[in-house]
Design brief:
It is a single chain. By secondary structure, the protein is of the alpha+beta class. The chain is 23% helix and 26% strand. It contains 4 helices and 10 strands, in the order αββαβββαβββββα. Strand 6 (138-143) and strand 7 (148-154) form a beta hairpin. It is globular, with a radius of gyration of 16 Å. It starts with 9 loop residues before the first helix and ends with a helix.
Length: 189
C-alpha cells in the first residue's frame, strides 16, 4: 500500500519508523516511494525463523558472516531504496563492524523473501530484481502454498536468471554459503 506521493529517502524513513505511532509498522522504500508492509503472519514468521536458524547453524564455527531477520538494507549509492528481506546473510568481510543501530548501509549477499497472502509473485520478483541490481548475489523466494522456492541471480551478462526448486529439492548456498544446502522438506514437512 503506497503511503503518500512524495519522494522519501532513508533518513526520512528512519525518522518515520522512530515515531511511537509507527512502532508496530513495517515500511520499505522503493525509488523514493514509501510502502507500508502488513505484519507477517504465523507461517511466515515460522519459516523466517527456521531459515535463519539453519543458516546460523551452518555458520556456527565458520563465522563467514552475519544473519539477520527483518533488518533494513540500502545500497550506499541509492538513498531512495531500502529493502527489508525476511532473512539476510552478509559475508563478514562486507558486514559493518559494529552493526549499526540504523539501517544496514549495503545490500546483503543473500536475501530471502517469503511469499505472504498479501504479496503477488510479480511484487516479490520485482523485489528480487531490486536486490540483485543493488549488489545482492543470491535471492531465495519461498512459496509456502506450493512448498517450492525460486532462486534468482544475475548471469555473466547481468541478466536476472531464475530457477524453480520443487518440493523435493534443495537450495544451495552457492558462493555465498559454500557447501550449504537446505532441503525444502526440512521446512515444509
Amino acid at each position: 500500500m503506497e503511503i503518500q506521493q512524495r519522494v522519501y529517502d532513508i533518513d526520512d524513513l528512519w525518522q518515520l519508523v522512530c515515531q511511537p505511532e509507527n512502532a508496530d509498522k513495517h515500511f520499505e522504500l522503493i525509488n523514493g516511494e514509501l510502502y507500508e508492509m502488513p505484519a507477517p503472519g504465523g507461517e511466515h514468521g515460522f519459516l523466517a525463523s527456521e531459515i535463519s536458524f539453519y543458516i546460523r547453524l551452518y555458520d556456527r564455527g565458520r563465522e563467514l558472516g552475519v544473519t539477520m531477520v527483518d533488518a533494513g538494507f540500502h545500497s550506499p549509492d541509492d538513498r531512495l531504496t531500502l529493502m527489508v528481506p525476511d532473512v539476510a546473510f552478509t559475508r563478514m568481510e562486507r558486514a559493518p563492524n559494529p552493526i549499526p543501530k540504523k539501517f544496514m548501509p549495503l545490500m546483503p549477499d543473500l536475501a530471502v523473501e517469503i511469499v505472504s497472502p498479501s504479496n503477488t509473485m510479480s511484487q516479490i520478483r520485482r523485489k528480487a530484481a531490486l536486490y540483485l541490481q543493488h549488489g545482492t548475489q543470491l535471492v531465495w523466494i519461498f512459496i509456502p502454498d506450493k512448498k517450492t522456492a525460486e532462486v534468482c541471480r544475475l548471469d555473466a551478462s547481468g541478466k536476472i536468471q531464475s530457477e524453480s526448486i520443487d518440493a523435493g529439492g534443495a537450495l544451495s548456498g552457492e558462493d555465498v554459503l559454500p557447501d550449504f544446502e537446505l532441503e525444502l522438506t526440512t521446512l515444509f514437512d
